[in-house]
């Protein structure tokens, strides 16, 4: 394909992503669902460019920045607090899905034995929480439940791909790895990946801290996921866990390592990058069907659709079956052993957790990564059928579960919009109180004229306190240039106190990372506004 054709195809793809995303917004439907369905319909339109999903493109180019962004936005406090529940899904449910698929596949899939079922189960075991979390955030799903769903999707990519590695080895060579070998592989995969991620995160923090150039700081963040992923893979650990760990690490330190301008500009860059990559991969999923069908012409469409629906229903059922006992085991461990203050999970929350197991691009890329030949050179049997069944699972879970999830969340009374609003108001009140206290200590060192400026500033802060209680307040204007400059200096000093206090509250687990970032963004915007006015 010529360079001109590639450019034209990419432009067409970008146009479709933008148009379908706009349609999704108009329909008030999560854009991953609209993009997959739109890509599927477009794939049958004559003369639409054909795009082949390359597993290397997904795992090496697309996945690392998405994982870093997900890790960056993950609350370490929530992740650590819910780690047992996350691992019960990321490890326990993955193993349960793989084993049950191996047992059940030969019952309804002609020619499948337990080894082929093992491969199929490993391919479809990983979840994609983009659609589920976008719906949950919009409808106000409880933060703990969202944290578990997001955390599961960050970890189970690694466990699912490890399971696939073992399943392929068993299927192609006929040799079953020992339990000790499997445990050692898993331990190194996790521990090595986390160690690499922490190491890369520490180096990035040391590099970024002395930097004052916004563009360089953002460039470092763009390079980071690829460095972390490639280093993790180079030592045969999990590159995925390495990137996630790096993302959580630098997200935790972003308040001190990045300048105000870098945080604001990087947020815009990463929001655009995330949307573009997600849009690209979801429409690419839909565009794959004709090429997938070309590899299985010997099976009737009716049988293919039947098998696809059965496997999709099986995946949904296995998750729903696992969630209840898994949650109660997690609850026992967290309460009795770890002494965490957690309530017993209710059935409504568990159902939503079970109904949020949507599959995405990682599953399809894993299916496309299956080898073409066996160890003896013979064709890899059922490869094309496994790819088709994976596509069906993605389509069924995204469309069926994605479209019905808002209904179930609302019906079960789990929608609590603005659930952390009270927490945010408490944080605002506290940092305003600390700021006012700091201004009180400044008074003895100020001249009479400076004290007038300080009094003006204190009145503004007190009005902000009153506004939190629902009382209207209007700030007074000050036309004196000198007093305005001194006012700016005082405001910068006080904002430093506010920023330190909200970071201290986050470190003390009084507020979540989400609240910190919202308040921090306001302070950053004020920094930029005053720096522009001083030019």
Q: How would you characterize this protein structure?
A:
With 535 residues, the chain is an all-alpha fold. The protein has two domains: 3-411, Na+/H+ antiporter like fold; 421-534, no CATH class. The chain has 21 helices and no strands. The protein has helices at residues 3-27, 31-42, 55-72, 76-81, 83-108, 114-123, 130-139, 143-173, 179-208, 214-234, 239-257, 260-286, 289-294, 301-337, 347-354, 361-368, 383-411, 421-442, 448-468, 481-507, 513-534. Helix 5 packs across helix 6 (114-123) and helix 10 packs antiparallel against helix 11 (239-257). It starts with a helix and ends with a helix. Mean pLDDT is 84; it is low at 470-481.
Question: What would the keywords be for this entry?
Answer:
Na+/H+ antiporter like fold, 21 helices, mainly alpha, 535 residues
SSE layout and pairing:
Layout: H1 3-27, H2 31-42, H3 55-72, H4 76-81, H5 83-108, H6 114-123, H7 130-139, H8 143-173, H9 179-208, H10 214-234, H11 239-257, H12 260-286, H13 289-294, H14 301-337, H15 347-354, H16 361-368, H17 383-411, H18 421-442, H19 448-468, H20 481-507, H21 513-534
Helix pairs in contact: 1-2, 1-12, 2-12, 2-17, 3-10, 3-11, 3-12, 3-16, 5-6, 5-8, 5-14, 6-8, 7-17, 8-9, 8-11, 9-10, 9-11, 10-11, 10-12, 12-21, 14-15, 14-17, 16-17, 18-19, 18-20, 19-20, 20-21
Task: Give the N-terminus to C-terminus distance in angstroms.
Answer: 51 Å
H/E element sequence: HHHHHHHHHHHHHHHHHHHHH
Largest sheet, strands/sense/barrel = none
Unreliable stretches, pLDDT < 50, 5 or more residues? 470-481
Can you name the CATH architecture of the largest domain?
Up-down Bundle
